[in-house]
Amino acid sequence: MAALALNHLLENWKIALRQQGYRVTRPRLQVMEIIVSSETPLKPQDIYQLSLDLESPPGIASIYRTLEMLDDLGLIQQIHQPGGCHAIWPAVEGHKHLLICSSCGQMRVIEGNEDIEDYINKIEEQTGYHVKDHWLQLFGTCQNCS
Amino acid sequence: MAALALNHLLENWKIALRQQGYRVTRPRLQVMEIIVSSETPLKPQDIYQLSLDLESPPGIASIYRTLEMLDDLGLIQQIHQPGGCHAIWPAVEGHKHLLICSSCGQMRVIEGNEDIEDYINKIEEQTGYHVKDHWLQLFGTCQNCS
DNA sequence: ATTGATAATGATAATTATTATCAATAAGGG
DNA sequence: CCCTTATTGATAATAATTATCATTATCAAT
Ligand SMILES: [Zn+2]
Ligand SMILES: [Zn+2]
Ligand SMILES: [Zn+2]
Ligand SMILES: [Zn+2]
User: What is the pTM of this model?
Assistant: First the structure.
């Protein structure tokens, strides 16, 4: 992702914090910067390990607290993968599908979900269920890893 | 699920164990019976709680060991849900989609996955990724819960 | 049916991840 | 700059999972 877009995202997050009455503190900024700078979804322990390179790293408790706050604000989302489901990623607007490289972990967000609406409608007719949400994730290899 | 189908599944599991050199023991049978009899995906701790009603329940360690064995044999699969991802369910033949009631937890397996192949092909062309696998899960309410 | 090699079990200790506690610190409005 | 109080860091507590090991039970071979 371009550095400009990263800063823009981070600025939006800071605005969101202040609007909701959260203070913008150094530990929170450290965690948020690690998240928005990452190419791959990160687990809490990943963030903790990365933070140890910083001059004055946040405590592990603050990392968990910041993640809980970001989740409450809807700014991050959980990513489910065969290897585990505790990794997070900046939340995307509306509903999107995920494309994950099984080799390098790189993740892309796919626009346009109307394509499978027909399929969902058919399932609703067949089963009598009322479908309110869906998860679609594609796993494979990116161009670099092929 | 019909009791006949449950017994059939359990018999197949026992055959699979013996074929792979695993012994068929009482703790393993107790765990497997709980799994195949359930209407909803179960977490390890769910199985442990249910097992406490039995005359001579298995130790918690044997429950985890049995789940690991069943997973190694490909007989169970992990189910991902918003509330957590540690629940398991008997593995289905080939690739299927999942339909889960957010209210009662009941789960159905949807046949026929060729419907979204066009969508996946389109994504591959757009992104250059080679998609090898995908997860599609639908969440909503079943007829009973509506 | 009995035996025997050894896989499997149960009880529990150890580990790992996450959450709660609380005195000390620092953000930010006035 | 000061003051209120949200937040932090250190650490204790909790919860889930895994490892350890002496004892037990499976099942193939007699
Ligand atoms: Zn998951
Ligand atoms: Zn890749
Ligand atoms: Zn239901
Ligand atoms: Zn599918």
Answer: 0.88
